[in-house]
Design a protein that fits this description.
CATH topology of the largest domain: Rossmann fold
Strand order of the largest sheet: 2-6-1-7-8
Number of helices: 9
Distance between the termini: 15 Å
Largest sheet: 5 strands, parallel
Number of domains: 2
CATH class of the largest domain: Alpha Beta
Shape: globular
């Protein structure tokens, strides 16, 4: 496919964005841009260099200088030539990524890197400001949501598979709600549904059903039905 397509998926934590975006990218042969992984990579580099996650100026410079590469199949994240796919998933780095992502200069630096990726590949990208800030002209925009208790149960299941036993659902729910407040209330690139984004509640849907709904939309918007079939 010569035309570059951008599929932007926004929404709160636990809505299923990463799972769905990875699945769609695989089915379409697009590059999956894991924005969270990019912020985690900056957080990891800062920690290794002894730079605090509240050092705004240093974090911005690191984000500009970071050489971050993403691969979809299999998923791989490279930072300055090193495979950090596993290292960025440590719980401490996850907490740091949330703080790093709130720094305006870091966001602006990584947005430029994300746009550069989309100049070379058709992409599926998920995050919290993709359709509003990163790719406001994206052909397909989805705001993927789910009820808070559903999102909490999904996150507990995910965490339990990685490092059993899982944390209590009540704690996970409280953390998700706090993250929602922080994401929606921040000055720089808050979590918002783009006016032209399609709202999709995944609460009662399977991953396959969500993917199929988005694939139908992609086919409608791009008129590439045959190319986008499995």
């Amino acid at each position: 496919m010569s035309r570059r397509i951008v599929v932007a998926i926004d929404g709160p934590g636990g809505a299923g964005k990463s799972t769905v975006a990875r699945g769609l990218a695989g089915r379409l042969g697009f590059l999956y841009i894991d924005t969270g992984a990019m912020y985690r990579a900056v957080a990891l580099w800062a920690r290794r260099q002894g730079i605090g996650w509240d050092n705004v100026q240093a974090l911005e410079e690191m984000a500009k200088a970071a050489d971050i590469a993403l691969e979809s199949n299999p998923p791989k994240v490279t930072l300055n030539g090193e495979d950090v796919t596993a290292a960025i998933r440590e719980p401490e780095i996850s907490q740091g990524a949330s703080k790093v992502s709130a720094v305006g200069g870091v966001r602006r630096a990584l947005v430029e890197k994300q746009r550069e990726m989309a100049r070379s590949f058709s992409v599926v990208m998920e995050g919290r400001d993709i359709g509003t800030v990163v790719f406001p002209g994206a052909e397909v925009k989805i705001f993927l949501d789910a009820e808070p208790d559903v999102r909490a149960r999904r996150r507990v299941k995910e965490l339990g598979e990685k490092t059993p036993p899982p944390p209590p659902e009540e704690r996970v729910l409280a953390e998700l709600e706090e993250r929602d407040r922080r994401d929606r209330g921040r000055t720089e690139s808050p979590l918002l549904q783009a006016p032209d984004a399609v709202y999709l509640d995944s609460s009662g849907l399977t991953v396959d059903q969500v993917e199929e709904a988005i694939l139908r939309l992609i086919r409608e918007r791009t008129s590439n039905g045959k190319e986008l079939q499995r």
